[in-house]
Amino acid sequence: LCVRRGSRAHTMSERDVPDERTAGRPDADERRADRADYRPNPDERGKWISAIIALLGAWMLVQAVLLDVVVTQFWNDILVGALLLAVGGYNYYRRSNEAIASVGAAFIAALLGAWLIAAPFVLGADTGATETVNDLAFWNDVIVGLAALLLGAYSAYAAREEREEARRAVT
Fold first, then answer.
1. For 19, which DSSP code?
2. Per-residue pLDDT averaged across 155-168, rounded?
3. What's the confidence (pLDDT) of residue 141?
4. Residue 124 near residue 131, CB atoms below 8 Å
5. CB 85 within 8 A of CB 58
6. Contact 60, 84 (CB under 8 A)
7. How confident is the model over 147-160, as a mean pLDDT?
8. What is the pLDDT of residues 92-134, one digit of tens each?
């Protein structure tokens, strides 16, 4: 629907136009105004969780270069670190803009954490033993994986709860 005001045309969505059932009813006008002003995450809840996930990804990128690791672990840590940085940064951006975090991105972070825990045992320099040349790299993968798994799972749970809360508030 196009409405002409002055010299400029404004497009209105169907939700903005009152229908004959709700025209003139103050409660319908208030609900429409509340829906327009509603921000699902005004206090940017959970932003720090996403930041920590992104920092874990950045650490994985740095430690792959700093620690003495075999080639398979190097590329595994680079790939997982880049993905953790991307999904953590994406959810941080969403939460910084007062939006609800992506459950999918948080779930990917949790899956990447689980993979980091399993990777030293699955990929191996000695085929199935551990893939690390030193113990520090082994434990780094396990600890960062555990942190990413827990933070990603909690972030997915919290984002799902925020989404449900937003649905209840809008209806």
1. -
2. 83
3. 92
4. yes
5. yes
6. yes
7. 92
8. 988 887 677 788 999 999 999 999 999 888 876 555 444 556 7
Query: In the prediction, which pLDDT does 83 show?
Result: 97
Write the DSSP assignment of 38-93 as a string of letters.
--S-TT-TTHHHHHHHHHHHHHHHHHHHHS-B-HHHHHHHHHHHHHHHHHHHHHHH
Q: What is the length of the chain?
A: 171
Task: Give the containing element (helix H, strand E) for 136.
Answer: helix 135-170
Mean pLDDT of 148-154: 96
What is d(CA 119, CA 138) in angstroms, rounded to the nearest whole number? Answer: 9
Strand partners, 5: 8
CA distance 61 to 150: 20
The span from the CA of 109 to the CA of 20, in Å, is 48
d(CA 26, CA 113): 51
User: Quick one: the chain helix, strand, coil %, rounded to 5?
Assistant: 65, 5, 25
Tokens of 99: 């939006």
Structure tokens at 30: 């208030």
Rounded CA-CA distance 142/45 in Å is: 28
